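Bench notes, afternoon.
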Amino acid sequence: MDTISIPNVVDPGVRKHFVDGYTQLKPQIDKVFKIDKQESETDEYKNYTGLSSYTQVNQGGEYDEDNPIQSYGVNLTPVKFGKMVPVTYEMRKWAKTKEIWDASSMLGKAAARHVDQRGADVFNNGRSASYTSYSDAKPLFSTIHPRSDGGATQSNLSTTGIEFTEPNLEVGLLAVEYQLDDRGNLIDLMASKLIIPSALRREACVILKSDKKSGTGDNDVNPYGIQEFYGVMKILVWKRLSAAAGGSDTAWTLQGSNHGLKWQWAEKPQVFRDESVGFKTDTVYYKGRYYASNGWRDWRDMWNSAGDKADIST
């Protein structure tokens, strides 16, 4: 039996099964992050405040002058991740293609799992003071986000960890709507997505997808079905937010389309072959690799509750 060719058989097969494995476990990051391309070793994003309110101008009077002031921002630097698998001479000699393809698929799945978990961990660590990105030096979800104009701090986190219920959903929605910019101006924000672990899936469907108001025998309309006032609230069930993946089975998050979460690809997941064959071991190595940055350039248009009914202050 002829040894199967590396460039003609093994290489294309490895790439195909790597892609198939990655696609099978396709990450959810594109549903919660704004995906972009990394342009430099460190991409810097600066935010600026809006202007203050108009002031009355009397006849012949001068107009008040105002300029935006630089606010907080973020620097995004990509990090490289990868894994390597061997293909031995014996695997090629005896045409053990299934073993090779399985290893390639596992390499792709490992990449997908890591990308997905890395994205989910932004939420899982979202209340941790040691996990920051934005230059206000606060976690993504905090009760004390400072304003760059020196105004009162703001919150996008439940101070009492309210659990996910219909009344508490309204509390979170209003909290997003009442968020201010760094000059104290009310912003046109509206949460349009509920991001939850698997354990809250059933309750979310009952509250948001029922024809009538949930939890009552009355014939009240379900307000979350009225697009004029609430738009279309999407539900994202992300199992990597669950306790089994290092997250929480009670935490829930609201997100709008103007959120500041960013994921930037310096290099999307792909597979490479070592150009040499190990003389001592007759082994060829394939490695999977990706290179990306993530973080947030603003905390607004997002709101979170730990859902554990515990007091918190971060």
